[in-house]
Amino acid sequence: MTLHQLGGPTRIIIEMIVMVCIACPLPAQSTTLAMVVKDPSVDNRGKVTISIDIDSDLGKLNEFWSVFPVTIQAPFKDKQKHGELRKLYPVAKYINCVRFLGGKDLTKDDYFRGIDEDGMAICDFSEAIELLNGIRECGFTPWIVLDNVPAAMSAESTQNKYGNTEPPANPTVWTSYVRQLIQTLVDRFGRDEVSGWRFRVGTEPDLSPGHWSGTKEEYLRHYDHTVAAVLDVLPNADIGPGNILDPVKHKKRGWGIEIVDHCATGTNHATGKIGSPMAFFASSYYTSVGVTDERFDNVVETMRARLRQYPQFAEVPVEIHEFGILTENGKLIAGEGTEFGGSWMAHMAKKILDLRVGRVYQWHWNTTKAGALPIPVTHVLRMLEQMVGETRLSAITSQKNELDDIGCIATRSDEHIDLLIFRHLATRDNGQPVSASVVIHGAKPNEQLWTIMRGSLIDRAHSGFMHEMEADRERIRKELGEDADPYSVAIKVMMRHGEKYKAMTGLSSLDEFPELSRNDDGTLQFDLELSGHNVVHLHLTKTK
């Protein structure tokens, strides 16, 4: 059986193994890309102070990471595969069904069966119901991306990288198609449940011709008609436009930010009124090993600044719908499975929370590797899961920069404090250790005794299996020969060493906790030594 004959999660997992084995880079590689940090050495500049105000209140920590995009939903129909799928999407609650209406392959069953005598679409949504049933039975809530336009509905369909990207030839036919879909969902799953789902009109509409080969004006028309069709059945539906290209990186190429202007002041092509509903606004964000991430801040601010121009959209949630470490040295790696990825995720989580980004969708390749095994990124998200709903605290660091970011995400409840302390270097090199002094101040620590009850860490020595897997890959490649088929190498690596990797995936607990002391002024303090890619999670409770 060839790889292309495999289906469902089996094929996905094999492809993940191949991607990991081909692309996992060796440590400490130099870089030459523009915007890349060229000097990986970091000097020890003395002790860094992390000051935590236990009396502060930055709001509740939200679960921004719980949506996973899925471009092929067919595996969910097979209950025998649900266990594998839950491992593939380990921290997911919602599955965002991308290309739900047309798919990447022009021959996909897209539910469109022609046009009746009244000019309306003839539809068969039985497969759509089966897909959504499978997702629900697997334990997830489905969200729906209303793309692609069925090939037979376009005047001249085009098979681009992600399928037919042409607009519908007749908006009336398309509108009836979407309206019938939503009504079918309501009839099958109930209005209350479907009202809690989310709908998105396309994906990266300003990526031409990959996702949309029509014009900007054609997308805006398409958006208006699609939203009107959904709201005709679900008046309070959570619906918005497709995530735009990174508006900073693709400033000259992308027009996606102009969707905001149209929704605010443009004439609605479906209703004839001014403006179009928009419940959220999102972009994509991809980065590379060796590249600093100040661009993320600029992406968020660019979207938020445009929304603020219009009072009706000033509070619309800003989100990221495609996200991850995509490349290194210009080479596709699609996710980073070592301690570098773990510290990067903590570094990015702090940004996401500080910038009030509502949701950041996670690709499975950014959170698992090698047959859906958890990696440091996964562990950081698991750490954050323990802090969801708790009150975020102000945590200020005396050293903060994009090259060498030392920070803390801190939360409290009535009975405990959680601290997620990290250090992330933008380069793969681990640099020199840095001493950090963590100080907890405010009235509450003065009044109470606290004890560190548990702790976990990620660093070079506690990073999972990826370094070991890379060494095994090199040995097997030499064994099979320099010209060995990468698929053969990948499968042999997992067959020979898969159990070893599984045994290495657990999150490491701290053998010894930092010594927590009380200063004369009543503040609590402890010291840590942080390597270049380090995450420490500490759980403090009141002493009885």
The count of DSSP E runs of length 2 or more, i.e. the number of strands, is 24
- Tally of helical segments: 14
Protein structure class: alpha/beta
Contiguous low-pLDDT stretches (5 residues minimum) are 1-16, 18-44
Bulk shape? globular
Major beta sheet summary: 10 strands, mixed
Write the layout of secondary structure elements.
Layout: H1 8-23, E1 48-53, E2 67-70, H2 82-88, E3 94-97, E4 112-115, E5 121-123, H3 126-137, E6 141-145, E7 159-160, E8 163-164, H4 171-189, H5 191-195, E9 198-201, H6 216-233, E10 238-241, H7 258-265, E11 281-289, H8 294-308, E12 318-328, E13 331-332, H9 339-354, H10 364-367, E14 368-369, E15 373-374, H11 376-385, E16 391-397, E17 404-412, E18 416-425, E19 434-441, H12 443-447, E20 450-458, H13 466-480, H14 486-503, E21 508-509, E22 517-518, E23 524-530, E24 533-542
Parallel strand pairs: 1-19, 2-3, 3-6, 6-9, 9-10, 11-12
Antiparallel strand pairs: 1-16, 4-5, 7-8, 12-13, 14-15, 16-17, 17-18, 18-24, 19-23, 20-21, 20-24, 22-23
Report on the structure:
This protein has 544 residues and is an alpha/beta fold. 31% of the residues lie in helices and 24% in strands. It contains 14 helices and 24 strands. It has helices at residues 8-23, 82-88, 126-137, 171-189, 191-195, 216-233, 258-265, 294-308, 339-354, 364-367, 376-385, 443-447, 466-480, 486-503; strands at residues 48-53, 67-70, 94-97, 112-115, 121-123, 141-145, 159-160, 163-164, 198-201, 238-241, 281-289, 318-328, 331-332, 368-369, 373-374, 391-397, 404-412, 416-425, 434-441, 450-458, 508-509, 517-518, 524-530, 533-542. A 10-stranded mixed β-sheet has the order 21-20-24-18-17-16-1-19-23-22. Helix 1 (8-23) crosses helix 14 and helix 9 runs parallel beside helix 11. The longest helix is centred in the N-terminal third of the chain and has 19 residues, at 171-189. It is globular and about 85 Å long. The model is unreliable at 1-16 and 18-44 (pLDDT under 50).
